[in-house]
Design goal:
Low-confidence stretches: 1-10
Strand order of the largest sheet: 2-5-3
Helix content: 10-25%
Structural class: alpha+beta
Distance between the termini: 62 Å
Oligomer: single chain
Number of strands: 5
Shape: elongated
Radius of gyration: 17 Å
Number of helices: 1
């Protein structure tokens, strides 16, 4: 007889992500864009910045602060 174990880490094959890889999105609204992007990248997120004004502060973010999201997912900042 042969016995084996199968371990699925949820690594991008359609399975849900490992709960340890889902974290709350940090709050960055009101911060300078550079600082906000750095904080999000340090937390493991990818960052996209959309420019709607000439200012250099984050006006909104999506997903919102505190929402659980997988590490490596994209957070969009509007400045």
């Amino acid at each position: 007889m042969i016995f084996g174990f199968f371990c699925d880490d949820g690594g991008g094959n359609g399975n849900p992500p490992n709960p340890q890889d889902v974290i709350p999105v940090p709050p960055v609204v009101g911060q300078p864009v550079h600082d906000a992007a750095q904080a999000l990248q340090n937390a493991g997120f990818k960052v996209e910045v959309k420019r709607e004004t000439a200012g250099d502060r984050v006006l909104s973010q999506s997903p919102p602060a505190g929402q659980p999201a997988p590490r490596g997912s994209k957070v969009t900042l509007v400045r």
